[in-house]
Amino acid sequence: MKVFKLLALFSCGVLILAGCKEKKDFIAKIGNDVLTVEDVSDRIMAAPPAYQAYINTEPGKKQFVDLLVREKLILESAKKAGINRREEFKTNLDNFKKEQKQQLKEYEDSLLLEMYLKEVKDNLISANEPEINLYYEQHKEEFTHPVAVTAKHILVSTKEEAEIALDRIKKGEPFDKVAQEMSTDKVSAQRGGMIGPFRRGELVKEFEDVVFGLKDGELSEIVETPFGMHIITKVSEEKLPAVPEDMAKAEIKNVIEKTKLDKWFEDTKKKLNVSVDYAKLDNIKGAGFDDGIGIAQDESGLEDFSN
């Protein structure tokens, strides 16, 4: 029995000594706190690259350790002064924790988006060679004799508003004046609704199908796109140099994949029974406006699929 007790005591002693040895692996002791080799190494690794070369020299390490010791001195003194028990400190700390929690959630969502969109692009909407070649043959004129169109448009939320805008123009009011007063695309509205020049494939299909079919100066009827109701007038059309086939096919790949992505979104919305109440948009405070006409295919976070 005595032997076992001795062995047990010896084992405990070894563990205690090992623990002490671990604890004593520090460079400085500041009150009840210590600055370990690992602490210093971690802080050096986290320092900006511009400082790394100096910090890793002998005088640099010494100066860096001295700075960390000063930091620990302030922290220890602050705790003794009871700063960490003050309401202001606790409130700020709680606010920071909430911000960190929100940032973690945003990062989690961002990571999910990035990883799944890559899978969607690689497996569901990737354009293959036969699709690209077929599109090129069917739209060859757009690349061998391309044109760029400049137009004006008025964008509104409802058909009723669009009818009012169209009626005002047909009764003789200048298009620019109606655009400035009614268009929700505030950037182009400042220019009387002017947008462009743009080629086919740069804006949403519903808009392009109408504007490229208009004559110069001709006014469209009401045009519905995913962004709202438009009144369009074509300003001018300019002939451009031919697009080389390899560049054309790179553009076509983007167009096909964007079209497939839009279809995937629509199909998924139906599966998940998505509904949106756009009437409540006016309740949103602090919403800004993007540059451009609001119909360019450049959704945030989906740049890889934009045209």
Brief account:
The protein is built from 12 helices and 6 strands. With 307 residues, the chain is of the alpha+beta class. Among the domains are: 25-85; 86-123; 147-240, Roll (Chitinase A, domain 3).
What does this protein look like?
The protein has helices at residues 2-23, 37-46, 49-55, 58-80, 87-123, 129-138, 140-144, 159-170, 175-182, 186-189, 205-211, 245-271; strands spanning 26-30, 33-36, 147-156, 194-198, 223-225, 228-239. The protein has 307 residues and is of the alpha+beta class. Among the domains are: 25-85; 86-123; 147-240, Roll (Chitinase A, domain 3), CATH 3.10.50. It has a four-stranded antiparallel sheet with strand order 4-3-6-5. It has a two-stranded antiparallel sheet with strand order 1-2.
DSSP E strands, number: 6
- Structure class: alpha+beta
Biggest pleated-sheet summary: 4 strands, antiparallel
Query: Count of helices?
Result: 12
Helix content: 55-70%
Kindly provide the radius of gyration, computed on alpha-carbon positions and rounded to a whole number of angstroms: 33 Å
What order do the helices and strands follow? HEEHHHHHHEHHHEHEEH
β-sheet strand percentage = 5-15%
Question: How far is the first residue's CA from the last residue's CA?
Answer: 83 Å
Q: Under the CATH scheme, which class of the domain at 147-240?
A: Alpha Beta
CATH architecture of the domain at 147-240: Roll
- Stretches where pLDDT falls below 50 for ≥5 residues? 1-22, 289-307
CATH topology grouping of the domain at 147-240? Chitinase A, domain 3
